Amino acid sequence: MAAAGGDKLPVEVCKGFSGLDRVVLREARGSSAEVYLYGGHVTSWKNDHGEELLFVSSKAAFKPPKPIRGGIPICFPQFASHGGLESHGFARNRVWSIESDPPPFPTNSASKAHVDLILKPTEEDLKIWPHSFEFRLRVALGPGGDLLLTSRVRNTSTDGKPFSFTFAYHTYFAVSDISEVRVEGLETHDYLDNLQSKERFTEQGDAITFESEIDKIYLSTPTKIAILDHEKKRTFVVRKDGLPDAVVWNPWDKRAKAIADLGDEEYKHMLCVEAAAVEKPITLKPGEEWKGRLELSAVPSSYCSGQLDPQKVLQSS
């Protein structure tokens, strides 16, 4: 459907892969994003040149109950796997609803290109995780093409009991070549290494570079992290609020071959840098609400002696 005069609507609900409902957001200057109601899952974010900025596997299954491989899965009510819950929780393989009249949503963006989704537990969910909640997710495109995700989780239980959860925006960035990428902003921070039984270390390098499998949870991280793609001369800037941790993951060649819904060579073109709350679970008493916000931008960047020229990024971000 299109608006009068042939203009495309800022928000359009339509069918995607496997007949699943999706919402397409379009900003006036040409950037776009798409969100599947299945999983409340952002599967595309394109700049005003139509370049895809998120990675989605060519083998991704858009077939419930399997989660979608790539984009921005929502990990809730747990990150990773422990206890009786499935890995990364159940929010990413439930069907969310569009909320037509959401409660007031204080936000910096006045963008018309936004959608409000809501997830409430089913009776089956309450059997595996016996807590009443409302999870509201706003996905918005800013005027400059920035992608903004705001999550609000409220404890709606009437039994007087608090609950605790961990959380991550499991963002898959599209990169030209993983060996040409560096991540800045996490140096000198402690991390838990999932490849070494969650042992705690301190990051020693002046930036994170990639030459083998990595699966680390960086703790008490800054609100801003930069992902520099040398070949594309592009920097992704991750800004986060309410999410103290950051997960960095790439499966590399051996592990990639063991992941059924990931192509053997696709690890070269993806990098997960995830805004998260993992180390210290969030606890909500009845009626309390938590908010976690993620803002992604992609800006042109240049290198000087192998380093990012910070002035270029500051001027263009």
Automatic annotation (TrEMBL):
This is glucose-6-phosphate 1-epimerase. The keyword Isomerase applies. Pfam families: Aldose_epim. The active site is at H170, E274. The keyword Disulfide bond does not apply. InterPro entries: Aldose_1/G6P_1-epimerase (IPR008183), G6P_1-epimerase (IPR025532), Gal_mutarotase_sf_dom (IPR011013), GH-type_carb-bd (IPR014718). One of its GO terms (cellular component) is cytoplasm. Belongs to the glucose-6-phosphate 1-epimerase family. Its EC number is 5.1.3.15.
